[in-house]
């Protein structure tokens, strides 16, 4: 696996001083569970690193957004942060780095397509951020987050257009049309804990409703709200 790790190190432009940190960041719990006889601490999975990486990422993204938008309101900054730390955004970055090919997975996870699972890849990227932080300090993690996660967003002058809060937009539109307040409910959950898919339904009164799936309740709700918004727009009379 050493040559594989060197390839990944070249992609992220950092050679680890403690290679075990990188190995741990790439080790899914399914891999460790299938090797119980190797002794405690020999094979650690990436769940704790994922926990740490989530916090490091949140701090660094918030820091960089404040620098990018010094006059923006807290609400606007929060929307942009939510976009940049979302599972979908992290999945996109992990795909670009081809992180899936470097993961250590158990046989069952391998056979079920684990190298392409959104939640699994997003979690592994957070673990990688933690590994960079522990190996090289905050500045190294900061440079990685800036280059891999924030830069494209910052370079896009219409970056805010990528951060669509469809739930708020639907709320405003229903108020304008004097329609009932949108009501959201989780109608279905499936999949293992680390890779659940949620189905959320939004209803506006008795006549208008939509359902959508997502890797989080929030993303599913946003998709459902977007669909209802599009239906409302389609119902509006066109100017002659």
What key phrases describe this protein's structure?
240 residues; mainly alpha; Ribonuclease iii, N-terminal Endonuclease Domain, Chain A; Double Stranded RNA Binding Domain; 2 domains; 3 strands
What's the arrangement of secondary structure elements?
Layout: H1 2-12, H2 19-25, H3 29-33, H4 47-68, H5 74-84, H6 87-96, H7 107-111, H8 118-136, H9 138-155, H10 166-176, E1 183-190, E2 197-204, E3 208-214, H11 217-235
Antiparallel strand pairs: 1-2, 2-3
Short account of what is shown:
The chain has 240 residues and is mostly helical. The protein has 2 domains: 2-159, Orthogonal Bundle (Ribonuclease iii, N-terminal Endonuclease Domain, Chain A), CATH 1.10.1520.10; 166-235, Double Stranded RNA Binding Domain. It is built from 11 helices and 3 strands.
């Amino acid at each position: 696996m050493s040559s594989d790790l060197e390839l990944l190190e070249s992609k992220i432009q950092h050679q680890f001083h403690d290679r075990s940190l990188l190995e741990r960041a790439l080790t899914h719990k399914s891999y460790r569970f299938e090797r119980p006889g190797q002794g405690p601490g020999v094979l650690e999975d990436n769940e704790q690193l994922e926990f740490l990486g989530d916090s490091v990422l949140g701090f660094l993204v918030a820091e960089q957004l404040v620098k990018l938008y010094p006059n923006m309101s807290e609400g606007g900054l929060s929307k942009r942060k939510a976009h940049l730390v979302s599972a979908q955004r992290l999945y996109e970055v992990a795909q670009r780095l081809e992180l899936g090919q470097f993961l250590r997975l158990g046989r069952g996870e391998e056979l079920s397509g684990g190298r392409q699972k959104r939640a699994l890849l997003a979690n592994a990227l957070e673990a990688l951020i933690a590994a960079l932080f522990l190996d090289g300090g905050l500045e190294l993690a900061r440079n990685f987050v800036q280059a891999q996660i924030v830069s494209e967003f910052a370079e896009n002058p219409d970056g805010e257009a990528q951060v669509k809060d469809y739930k708020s937009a639907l709320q405003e539109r229903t108020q304008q049309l004097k329609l009932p307040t949108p009501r959201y409910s989780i109608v279905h959950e499936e999949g293992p804990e680390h890779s659940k898919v949620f189905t959320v339904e939004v209803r506006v009164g008795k006549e208008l409703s939509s359902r959508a799936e997502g890797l989080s309740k929030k993303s599913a709700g946003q998709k459902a709200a977007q669909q209802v918004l599009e239906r409302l727009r389609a119902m509006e009379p066109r100017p002659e």
